[in-house]
Amino acid sequence: MPRGDKSSYTDKQQRQARHIEEGYEDRGLSQDEARRRAWATVNKETGGGKKSGAGRGTPVSHAPSRKGGHAGGAATASRPAAARSASARKAAATRKRNAAAKH
Asked: Which of 71, 75, 77, 87 has the most CB atoms within 10 Å of its CB?
């Protein structure tokens, strides 16, 4: 089986990877990077593809999926309050401008 072959994965794992990949693409990642991260997440959660033999199952952990949200605040927390406030004002102005453009 060549590297990158996904035939040893269950239908559920393939659906999960597609869904995770779409989420990454919606957040602006390239298709290749989104696919790479999606399969890494599925592998981390489910322990990889199907394996034969009794007792080979491992419990599914959703910690890798939750991890992304927790990692995001560290950079913001290290910035000064003035910088965070300036970013918030800029974001509010952008939202207001985009809302006006829609109507």
From this structure: 87
